[in-house]
Amino acid sequence: PKERKLNNFLTLRNSPFLNKYNFIYKNEKLILTYEEKELITILPENNNEKLLLVNKLIELESSLTQPITLLKNKDFPFYDTSHSNKVFNSISLINLNSVNDFESKINQKVELQRFRGNFYVEGIDPWEERKWINKIVKINNVSFKVEKNIPRCVAINLKPKTDNINFNLLKSLKKNFDHFDMGVYLTAIEDGKIDIGSKVELN
After folding, report:
1. Which pLDDT tens digit goes with each residue over 183-196?
2. To pair with 162 at 20 to 30 A between CA atoms, which of 4, 39, 136, 145?
3. Are 169 and 112 in contact (CB under 8 A)?
4. Closest Cα partner for 80 from 127, 149, 131?
């Protein structure tokens, strides 16, 4: 596909107030919630119902840039890295000990939800994952290539499930570690199933 520019999409970077809402996909239905309360449920394959969801978002947040359209692409679904020139279906891995090290440096509790990871792993030295770039890791015997570090944006400053910015984590990362990264991007080399507690091995 052509390059997808993030400024054409609603993101936490350009629309931080969206952080207080949550979308849940369950039983082929898309549910919009706020503070655990269901606001609207639609069938995402139904164009009329998609319009109902769009109108609900505009009702809730009138400052949203319009028009708003819900998009779906089965061949190239949207991932954090889908806007880059090299589109790949990325999976994010977060080392819990890296987060713990960050917390100790800034003397603040950092909620894991800020990093929106797919895999959270423990038992690895802090920042060890930064040495894995271009290497192969196996999780439950499923192979993944470690593509790159994940550069973070201002979205991590948002307290989970709110639109409040209570401290500047991005600035703290740079100050303490001289980078803006947390976690690494993986791409799956083969199909497989990952379970909670699966073992991570570096090839």
Report:
1. 999 999 999 999 99
2. 4
3. no
4. 149
